[in-house]
Amino acid sequence: MALDGFRQRGMRGMRKRGLLVKTLEKRYKN
Question: What is this structure's pTM?
Answer without folding.
Answer: 0.37
